[in-house]
């Protein structure tokens, strides 16, 4: 157990640790479907029998193969990116120390990757708790009992924080340069390999058009790679089991609404998870409404009895009604899972929005991309990626250095958050493997809007993390906590963020002395703006000082809030290259190239049409 830093107050003993999510239910037999993973452990719940499927005429014949139809550019970029990123990473580098060398030289294949685009995307992620209790070690406020378990420690620790004197310091004005264009949209952010272009185009095989009264679950087993299933409007009460479907690059399995403007509604159950993934890959699930209906099953789950789930796209899902308990999750993974692209979803009214990674660290989630989602009003985490044990031996699991990218999301706990031992940060990131492959894996967190948490910090992390070009607003507590939880902070770079907080803006403590934890180029207004051993080139002040520099920092999000600098604001500059190589580190929150290199999330006042942070999708 890591030593508890003296300046971190522990929570008083709470109730017994609650097992993660829903696990202890016994499922009734369901015709025409393989056994379903029991949901994760919850207090004793009566088993709800799944009603038999009403007899229907023989299944409609699938339509003949259809010509590929183009999807939007973002779908093409992200789907094609997934496989290529898992293949293209080299030995990688640590963050925050000139790519692991003080002279700024690159290591291994990072040089080759840099030639593809100036700052490249590489992804990995985490998978949700698989039942049982989470560990109770560490000092963070993050989950130690799964989404709703008992915590050990708190992220607040405000009573012993050291005060920071307001100071305006300026650094260098160097910029990282302009990325070359390679075609498509936003090439500076999404270099596109070729492996999944076919999947981006939609089904290339048969298309099964089904309705709520069809025995679509039986039809799933007759699908072949490249086939699609389109659900007509209406309510579906039998779930969506995606088991043992193995596609290939250019031949995904598709499950989607026939009319995205009037999506099919899948209703939750306490006896199963709604979208159940097991031993499947190259799967696309999009434009469905997943209504938990106050039941105890998760909306989307990579099941704990699966060997693998990988190369999965979850897009345009509307997930709600999953807040019967903090242990009920919107998107959860409980097995080794990688190459997920989770994009453009809205999760509200959930116990936990996304819980990625097993509570004991045994089910890694990596090489994935989480972007353009809105996760709001959850009881516990908006999003957590659990710590990871040494990687298991699973065919296809990336063993080269990878990165998890969390970008352009909106994470809000303005309403409905639990307190006491059930309080959670908006985002928590656990450590990567401590030995073997993956020890240099890292998380990139950029371009996100973090809003409101009445008890915990907006972000808590350990391990290898870069946090940049985000907007943090918490007028009830603290913003960023980098501190030990299941291990310690290692390679940390926090730069170019705009932070507004009532208590602490950015705090770093308990870091590995052999690693680098740097805090620089941030614009921070809080009672204690920055408390970190290695902090430089930040502009800090009190929360009230924000109005001197920012356009409209005191209005509510969506009602005029504007954290852009005002015209003529006197802001110092910084050099984002001090972080080493991180994708899009030369861009601000709006995606603009940092020409002036101004501290904070924005490189200047708002341009016409700029998005103002709100609890709505970021374009």
Explain what you see.
With 619 residues, the protein is mostly beta strands. Helix content is 6%, strand content 25%. The strands form four sheets. Strands 1, 2, 5, 8, 11, 14, 17, 18, 21, 24, 27, 30, 33 and 36 form a 14-stranded parallel sheet that branches. Strands 3-6-9-12-15-19-22-25-28-31-34-37 form a twelve-stranded parallel sheet, with no helix packed on it. Strands 4-7-10-13-16-20-23-26-29-32-35 form an eleven-stranded parallel sheet, with no helix packed on it. 61% of the residues are buried. Residues 1-146, 149-187 and 191-197 have low confidence and may be disordered.
Major sheet size, sense and barrel closure: 14 strands, parallel
- Relative helix content: under 10%
Number of E-state strands: 39
Strand content: 15-25%
Q: How much is the radius of gyration in Å? A: 23 Å
What's the rounded overall pLDDT mean?
A: 76
- List low-confidence stretches: 1-146, 149-187, 191-197
**Backbone structural class:** mainly beta
* Straight-line distance between termini: 43 Å
Give the overall form.
Answer: globular
Count up the helices. 5
